[in-house]
Amino acid sequence: MTRHEASPYATVMGDGQLTGRPTVYPGAGPYGGDLEVPEPLVTGGKTWADVDQDICMHAERFPTKRWWLAFSVALGFLGVLVFALITLFYAGMGIVGVNQPVSWGSFIINFVFWIGIGHAGTLISAVLFLFRQQWRTGINRAAEAMTLFAVACAGIFPIIHLGRPWFAYWLVPYPNARGPLWVNFNSALAWDIFAISTYGLVSLTFWYVGLLPDLATVRDRATHPWRKKLYNAMSFSWTGSHRAWRHYESAYMILAALATPLVFSVHTIVSFDFATSVMPGWHTTIFPPYFVIGAIFSGFAMVITLMTFMRGYFGMTHYITLNHMEAMAKILMFTGMMVGFAYSTEFFMAWYSGSEWEGFVFKNRAFGPYGWAYAIMFTCNAIVPQLFWFKAMRRNTWALFAVSILVNIGMWFERYVIVVTSLHRDFLPSSWGMYALTAWDYAILAGSFGLFFTLFLLFVRVLPVVAISEVKGVMDPKVARSNPSRAAAAAIQEA
Amino acid sequence: MMPTSTRGVLGHFYEPDDALAAAAKVRDAGWKHFDFLTPFPIHGMEDAMGQKKSWIPYATAVLALCGILFAQGLQNYVMVWDWPMNFGGKPHAAWPAFIPITFEAMVFWAALGSAIIAIIAGKKDTIPQPPPLLVKTGATVDKFVLWISATDPKWDAARAEAFVRSLGADGVTLVDVAPRPGSPFGGRSGRGEPGRTAGRIEQGHTDEGGADA
After folding, report:
1. Among A145, A172, A360, B181, which one is most buried in terms of CB atoms within 10 A?
2. What is the domain count for chain B?
3. Over pLDDT 90: what percentage of chain B?
4. Separation of alpha carbons A171 and B65, rounded Å
5. What is the pLDDT of residue B171?
6. Are B99 and B83 contained in the same domain?
7. B30 or A332, which is more confident?
8. A205 touching chain B per CB within 8 A
9. How would residue A216 be classed by pLDDT, with cut points 50, 70 and 90?
10. Nearest residue, CB atoms, A245 vs list B41, B131, B142
């Protein structure tokens, strides 16, 4: 039997040859039905050895000029964050926009925004894993890294929102000399501490477990003995043993099964911060699903933004193909419609409840002084993604990139609308007020992006940005295997 | 640390299906201390190698229960016993309010514990492995490597090597790395049978005895 028989996968060399549709062989399937062969997830006729080279290469050579350029911009914004935070700690909360009646401002908005961004990473790594969506293999490593860095950004905001961040450790329940004075476990804010810290640590674990085999690949490619030893220690001397794989696969499945309800619980608990209060516009049962779906929506937008860079900057088009981008566009449109549906449901419920306050808040939200923010939110989140009904748009990288940026803006404004409009006009018209971000609010927001991109750019320099072992598992062995006769022929030619 | 075997025999295959077929043959031939080193997990390899299913899920269940007990214990201790407070006449043991933290603690214990136990199990619940810093197997790149450790009760170097060759493996090599005194890994070759490859091993690509033959 010949081992090098032609595979239909071998001929797909790039995005240009992908259609996003399976090849149909009429009558060739089981029971006389049609056989649909999906397009390959990796293009370019890559072998398993090519995968190592293409992905590890970026961490093995001196950084390119473009990387330095991007890194210095990101580092500049990180500097802005550090400067703004030092000023905030020195001068106090008076320099930012929060005051009565809007006592929750940009810090809470940014916190919910960044936590939401993180959710898509877990969705891709855990939920799509359980649903056996094999296209996730190309993007899950970078998406999980995005989760970790987004959670790191989010974690800053509740702490600085405290006003006296040096007492942040009081949020942790531990036996102490203050009574002991415990946190109130009936409070949604105490639940938040547990939810966010669990989410951060479980995401880190999931990401690291996924990295183990790839760290061994980097180790085996390393030439410098220290680099070899470092990556060997980081991979816990991974050999690829099937006796280890069997426990590894079991644990990975369990982590996915645990991370799936976790990702839903985290944004549910974040929404409890609002929903357990008695403010009109916040005190609604729709908040948990509304927040979770909004989080996944915004996170997918950020994944599309990052993957566009990965394709362009790092030339990952063979691993993150147009088919991957199209699949993400579909999820973006689907979640966008769910978010739009939630916006409409809120209005219906405000009217149907018969509550005067609820009705006023929603009229004020859409047509009051912050109507412009509502318009940005609704346009970017519910209307713009409708573009993806058209296949040509789903497969157009520029359209994808533009929509992903607009959705990120729209989702930031969604949190702005939720936080600000419910607070600025409450029950007593005499205490109504307006809210505006100050320059320091903007500096901290911009700086958090600096932190995010600094961490992401460091990540692409030291770790494999695509899950190598998972990508290898979804490749066609007929194409990807090492070919000893070809290698021998090349050796003879060289000699 | 991982038990490393200084002695054993290696041979590689090029495709997962070949590795599966070979694993079943090794199992049926009665070898116990053998392993397949692969770049990615192969579906059905547990059966082919005659292994039981992983016991990690049981550890997860126990850890999840510990997490639940920890969270329930902490919250009830604080809210009912150590610092009971009256919030509008509501009961101290407000169990619905304890659910979110109980859930998070369950996930935290189960996830972190399972990951740590799986990593340790991958080192302990195994056979001696070829030391990864000394022996280049190619298993992290594109080879599906059969490894028979010298700790196997049936071990006999010549017979093991002949057996691996008979399976159609390529690059069959007898590994014999002597550890340097005071170092976890060797780096100095020796103690090998004369004429055998020993120490640092580089495998060439040859068609001799390959899966294609």
Report:
1. A145
2. 2
3. 24
4. 25
5. 82
6. yes
7. A332
8. yes
9. very high
10. B41
Phi, psi of A388 (to 5 degrees): -80, 10
> Based on the domain organization, do B35 and B132 belong to the same domain?
yes
- Tell me A20's DSSP state: S
The answer to whether A329 and A400 have CB atoms below 8 angstroms apart is yes
**Same structural domain, B71 and B117:** yes
Could you report the per-residue pLDDT of A225-241, keeping only the tens digit for each? 899 999 999 999 898 88
Print burial letters for A352-391: b (CB count within 10 Å at least 16), e (below 16). eeeeebbbbbbebbbebebeebbebbbebbbebbebbeee
Q: Which of B73, B93, B124 is the last residue of a domain?
A: B124
CA A223 to chain centre: 33
Domain chopping of chain A, boundaries: 75-206+262-468
Of A228, A262, A269, the CB nearest to B107: A262
Domain shared by B77 and B34, yes or no:
no
Cα B14 from Cα A145, distance rounded (Å): 32
Whether residue A101 has a cis bond before it, omega within 30° of 0: yes
Nearest CA-CA distance, residue B194 and chain A, Å: 27
pLDDT in tens, A436-453: 999 999 999 999 999 999
Query: Measured between CA atoms, how close is A324 to chain B, in angstroms?
Result: 21
Mean pLDDT of the B27-37 span: 88
First to last CA, chain B: 39
What are the backbone dihedrals phi and psi of residue A37, each rounded to the nearest 5 degrees, phi first? Answer: -100, 115
Beta carbons of B205 and A488 less than 8 Å apart = yes
- Give a yes or no: residue B33 inside a domain: yes
Asked if residue B70 and residue B162 are part of one domain, the reply reads: no
The CA distance from B139 to the nearest CA of chain A, in Å, is 6
Chain A touched by B140 (CB under 8 Å): yes
Whole-Å CA distances, A146 to A63, A123, B85: 21, 12, 41
**Boundaries of domain holding B115:** 56-124
Look at residue B132 and give its three-state secondary structure. coil
Q: Which residues, at least 6 apart from A187, have a Cβ–Cβ distance to it below 8 Å?
A: none
**Is residue A161 within 8 angstroms of chain B, CB to CB?**
no
Helix residue spans in A1-135 (DSSP H): 48-60, 65-91, 106-122, 128-130
**Length of chain A in terms of residues written:** 495
Residue type present at position B152? D
- Tell me, yes or no, if B125 comes closer than 8 A to chain A by beta carbon: yes
Residues B106 and B145 reside in one and the same domain: no
Is B109 found in the same domain as B27? no
Q: Which of B81, B104, B124 is the endpoint of a domain?
A: B124
pLDDT, position B1: 44
pLDDT above 50: residue B198: no
Query: What does chain B come to in residues?
Result: 213
